[in-house]
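Q: What structure does this chain adopt?
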Amino acid sequence: MAPSPRRTTLACLITLAATAAVFSDTAAAANKRANAAAETARSARECTALGDFYWEIGDKNGVQASGQIGSEYSASTEMKIASASKWVWGAYVLEKIGRNARPSDDQVAMLEMRSGYTAFNPVRCLLSRSVGACMEARGNDDKEKAKVGRFSYGGGHSQRLAVSMGLGKMSAEQLTAEVKGRLGAELGFSYDKPQLAGGMRSSASDYAQFLRKIMKGQLRMHDYLGYDPVCTLPGVCKSAVSSPVKEAWHYSLNHWVEDAPGTGDGSFSSPGLMGFYPWISADKQTYGILARQKLSASAYWDSVQCGREIRKAWMQSGR
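A:
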């Protein structure tokens, strides 16, 4: 017997009501997370010390929450991102070698800063107009045999890898075209210096596009996040020579793994010297950016401390 029209209508209304309740609960949870993150950005001790900054959290589909502290920075503000450039270079290398190829041992050593090219100083090549000229400037290309196989943070590893991959003659403009040709022409970042480890400019909005491409699996970096991580903190591991990070993080292919005992949550990141801090959560479902540009010896670490408090607020309020 066919159901009566009245029963069919009632069933539809019940379904619609249940669906509306689910959407309402989802929206309420999202608002709770956004409010918790915003309150942390405004009032957490680690964040009030920063001055002006922009923050953003999202998933592979787009921005979920964002905010401006002060008026100096917004989602579209371009700035020098320093070592956040490293993550982009690591992603480029994986695309360049081919979709089915694994990076060689030498390539992994360079992307994990174990190649011995530790004499590099970016100041020496401020006037250099090509990747190779920068690497060759005043001893930047010197290889320290005693440091081969040991983690030593610096830009020489990436610069040497770029030369070995045939990019030595490229200017900053040519390098931008080459990297975007592999990662996506829609990405808005660029090199203002031919330095792979620290020469990029970007806005939070443009860099977020890159992070979302990783999270969607459109870039091979998705499957290489946290690949073959190495110990980085001198005093904790004998294989580490120098690290700018004050905790026992590990390092993978041109990105950090924030897994220090007691403070780490396993997120992947690449904080820049002047305070640009991008990250992807350990489960690869959430990304975040704290964007600012400050000349300060502790700018990168100050941004990390604030950024991870915002991340913690977002994650914990969603439980």
